[in-house]
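User: Hey, quick favor. My workstation is busy. Could you predict this chain's structure for me?
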Amino acid sequence: MKSKTLFDKIWDSHVVKSIEDGPDVLYIDRHYIHEVTSPQAFNGLKERGIPVFRPGKTLATADHNIPTKDQHLPISDLLSRNQVERLSENCQKYGIELFGINHPKNGIVHVIGPELGYTLPGMTIVCGDSHTSTHGAFGTIAFGIGTSEVEMVLATQCILQPKPKKMRIIINGKLHKGVTSKDIIMYIISEISASGATGYFVEYSGNAIRSLSMESRMTICNMSIEMGARGGLIAPDETTVQYLKKIPLIPGIKDIYSSVNEWEKLCSDPDAVFDSELNFDAGLIKPMITYGTNPGMGMAIDASIPDSDQNGSKASASYLKSLEYMGFKPGMKLLGHPVDYVFVGSCTNGRIEDFRAFAEVIKGRKKAENITALIVPGSKKVEEQMVAEGLIEIYKNAGFDVRQPGCSSCLAMNEDKIPQGKYAVSTSNRNFEGRQGPGARTLLASPFTAAATAVTGSICDPRQFITEENKVKN
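Assistant: No problem, here it is.
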């Protein structure tokens, strides 16, 4: 029997039909929807008189443009309110489970799917959102789709999809103090560029990946999109199993132990062939920060902004334009540069582990006066955990307020916008021009770096607060 990659095993087992010289018809196990990319899809079904084929395979939440303050009040923005109301109406009409605003299970779609047990190893998963790749941390094929494809999946539970090429990225070695999974993926993107994995589905492996928690693995897979990949995945292991065993009730599974036997088979064969392989040494990675307007423009936090493009050629006009937008120049160091905002949250770093890390640094310290902080949990469950673990109290004592769950300032579709010209150290995934608000200047970083910046008021190396065992110095 021909050796296969993990990606091949999942993909091939879900192919309903292969079209000669065309795409595959791929069956979808789980379809996530939200208020922004679903209204047009439901309208399409209505116009053609088509029902939702398998409503039990779809799960809905409101997250992208809901407010993160006063969620008990009517949404003030009319467009946002309309989208949220349409989602509720459509889910009720077609029998789709909805975790809407104020529901105890509400949250960012890529946070609640895993934490509630809807994301399971071996699945195919889609959503009208590019960061669906997050779910690949569980050993799934998960990718974002467009609105017309959302309609296709609602109508057929299948999607037409060409099979991507396969890349393996191997990260071995021991991570140094203050270095997180966010730094790992930002380092990889800085090395291969924001288009370095275009056309590929990436499998991450190596002992550095195996050492990561499930939350950290989700961060890695989440930002696969930022290097152009179709998605990313990590083979399930004991860490995956232990995470899932802690979920009180996993939808569709009566006996988790029999499922574990199947999950253990989900790995690439030892001699499986990838179209491309890359190796990285975890010991070379430092805390990272971006300096430009795409995620590939990143560097170690104590480095200087390069005076050339990523490929080593003379600085191009677009490179210099990016720096001009950010107010930076080649050769500059960013350490000590004043910052106005800090954002902690998003589907990249909005889980309980991220807020624990932030709390470790700020505990016993005070927020710098010049910092406005947007602290936004990724779900109601994360919010509850923060209360139960005393994190909210730590934040309040340090001068921080915690908002209610939502996508928030990651894409600024609600009121949580960074003002024009202001700098924000953000734990989200994109730093495009205007991503966090018109004229906003975004610097991507880890929760540790965001916390160090929040208490000092300027870009700060978090390692000065952390011991070699990743324990924070008080």
